[in-house]
Specification:
Layout (H helix, E strand, L loop, with lengths): L10 H4 L11 H14 L12 H8 L3 H13 L3 E4 L3 E4 L10 H8 L4 H22 L2 H19 L5 H13 L4 H24 L1 H17 L2 H16 L7
Antiparallel strand pairs: 1-2
Helix pairs in contact: 2-4, 3-4, 5-9, 6-9, 6-11, 7-8, 7-10, 8-9, 10-11
């Protein structure tokens, strides 16, 4: 029988939760206190937060405010509520119901020059990370995405999802949750432009993907960078800029 893990909070770490906070921004301030405790090593992933009663007493707020704060922390994937045990700091990033980073980037989606600049910086970095971390199964998924795109083009059925599948396969090959999370947000931002390129120049997109993967398979870092640059240049022609 497994034993319930107790909160790993020392008297000094409890100080992070010992002073009252403004009721108008409970969740935000509680989030800041948790972040500070994590940075200082007073809380660790897998630790439990003080109980609802302890938080109510130490923060000087009502139980309803604490519950709302916990719901917000759950929504953005910071904590996990375990029935009968308590509220635990997640051991690794979860799949948030509400992703602040994604919303921030999506709200700025009209600034397509910024999106392009970010993609040019980020895509080579995560592709090289994937190249070094990829396992045989990852290579199989990348090749399958290329083959599926080729088949769709032959049948005149190509859509953005065929392009996206290639990028997602490479993202997954990084085996890095943070890289994947940022990459998924980027994909959401550029999906409309990918749809345009798949309808106007699908053969170019397919050629670019094959060139990227050929360098990827060969472990050729400079080749990967060069192939992505060519792909970015061709993709850029489909963008409508917002000045």
């Amino acid at each position: 029988m497994s034993l319930k893990r107790q909160p790993a909070l020392t008297p000094s770490s409890m100080e992070s939760f010992s002073s009252s906070i403004d009721r108008s921004s409970v969740a935000l301030q509680l989030l800041e206190r948790i972040k500070s405790a994590l940075i200082q090593g007073e809380l660790q992933p897998g630790d439990y937060l003080p109980s609802e009663t302890e938080l109510t007493q130490s923060l000087g707020i009502g139980k309803s405010s604490v519950r709302e704060a916990i719901k917000m922390l759950q929504a953005i994937g910071i904590v996990e509520v375990k029935r009968g045990q308590g509220t635990m700091i997640r051991r690794e990033p979860g799949d948030p119901l509400v992703d602040p980073m994604a919303f921030g980037m999506i709200l700025a989606r009209g600034m397509t020059r910024d999106v392009l600049e970010f993609r040019k910086m980020f895509e080579p970095a995560y592709t090289l990370q994937a190249m070094h971390n990829a396992c045989p199964e990852d290579h199989m998924h990348i090749q399958q995405a290329i083959d599926a795109m080729a088949s769709a083009i032959d049948n005149g059925e190509q859509t953005a999802r065929h392009d996206v599948a290639f990028h997602r396969a490479i993202l997954q090959a990084t085996h890095n949750p943070m890289t994947i999370r940022v990459g998924e947000t980027l994909i959401q931002l550029i999906e409309a432009a990918l749809e345009t390129s798949m309808q106007t120049q699908p053969e170019v997109a397919l050629k670019d993907h094959r060139a990227i993967y050929a360098a990827f398979q060969a472990g050729d870092e400079e080749g990967v960078k060069a192939a992505i640059e060519v792909s970015s240049d061709s993709w850029e022609t489909n963008l409508t800029y917002v000045e």
